[in-house]
Structures are given as structure tokens and as C-alpha cells.
From TrEMBL:
Protein name per UniProt: ATP/GTP-binding protein
Stored InterPro entries: Gliding_Motility_GTPase, Gpn, P-loop_NTPase
Molecular function in Gene Ontology: GTP binding; hydrolase activity
Signal peptide: none
Amino acid sequence: MYLPEGDHQRVKILVAGPLGVGKTTAIKTLSQIPTLHTDEVMTDAAAGTDDLSLIGLRDKKTTTVAIDFGRLTLPGDRVVLYLYGTPGQRRFLPLWEGIAFGALGALVLVDTRRLDESFEVMDLIEERGLPYAVAVNTFPDSPDYDLEIVRSKLDLAPDTPLITCDARELNSSLNALIELTAHSISSAGVGAS
Ligand SMILES: Nc1nc2c(ncn2[C@@H]2O[C@H](COP(=O)(O)OP(=O)(O)OP(=O)(O)O)[C@@H](O)[C@H]2O)c(=O)[nH]1
Ligand SMILES: [Mg+2]
């Protein structure tokens, strides 16, 4: 599917976060083109590395081994967002570096059952000076913390947007993206290349 004629401002956005937090789901929900995914079936070889039982994902059969990619044209047809899902596992970090190049900002998905797993990716984003917003993806058995508690547990800066979302729902995911875009624009120049 091609872009309509005309001048477009192309913006690269990362969708980041730990294993199984909903990155692929969010990009599928948001993209207006068929998404590119590189999910592979998880084998028993991953059992000691990607522990799904800990995160209530015993039924999860695949994981993203490189990137997810989707595209979204904002109303007005002038700004096109390119969404790059970045793998959550530590062993993919060198790949993550390449994907992050030139990004305007990052949407970090977190799960309140395992907030501690979010620090690694937030550190990488902060090291590059990329603006980011944090979206708590709501799973049925995740603790329903007040957002101020999540902010404090994640040690977020006061101006870092923090929202809840359901990655399966368009309006909810769009809302998270809009928070990030507004924050990235207000931090313009910081980390953008
Ligand atoms: N309840 C609920 N389930 C979700 C949500 N987002 C994703 N899921 C489910 O959680 C599981 C993992 O989602 P993925 O989108 O594959 O997560 P991921 O972050 O891409 O996973 P990796 O690529 O393996 O790191 C899937 O079974 C989704 O259907 C959500 O917002 N709410
Ligand atoms: Mg994925």
C-alpha cells in the first residue's frame, strides 16, 4: 500500500519493552498497512532464557526475533509515523541499537507484574537522549497500581508521560502514541536526528 502523493513528514517511533509486553500487538493495532513481523516459534531451547511461566504467558507460542514494522498516517495526511517494534530480550541489544538510530521517540510498554524488567530498555533510551512515554499495558492478572505508584517504582521524571493502554484497542493505543508524539515535539531537538 503506497502513500498518497504529497509532502510527508516521516517520523520514526520505537515501540519498546520487555518480553511479551504487547509490542507486536500494539503495532498490529496501530498500523494502517499490513505489518511486517519477524515472530518465530519459541522452542524448548528458549525455556531457560525466556521464562514465560513467570509472566502468565504459558500459552505464548512465538516471540519477535528482529523487528516489527508498521506505518500510520496521522489525520491531515502530512505526518507519517513509522513504527518499529524493538525486541525485548537482552541478547538482541546490538540489533536494538540500529533500530533506534534516527528515532524521534519511544513508547515503552510495561507490565505491572514485572516493572523491574523495564529498566534496561529505559536506560538504553535515556542514554540516547530519546524522549519517551510509558504505557502500562493492562493484563487481567496485573496489579492495578495507581499511576503515581508506577511512576515512583519506575523512577520516571515528572514530565515523562505515563498512561494506561490496551494494546489490542486502536483508540487506546492511539492515545498512548499521541502522548508520546506531543512529548517528543515539546522536547524537540533532544535526541532527534
Ligand atoms: N490482556 C491483554 N493482553 C495483551 C495485550 N497486549 C498483548 N496482549 C497479549 O499478550 C501476549 C504477548 O503479546 P505480544 O504482542 O506478542 O508481545 P511482544 O511484546 O511483541 O512479545 P515479544 O516479541 O516476545 O517480546 C499476546 O498473547 C497478546 O495477545 C493487552 O493490552 N491486554
Ligand atoms: Mg513481539
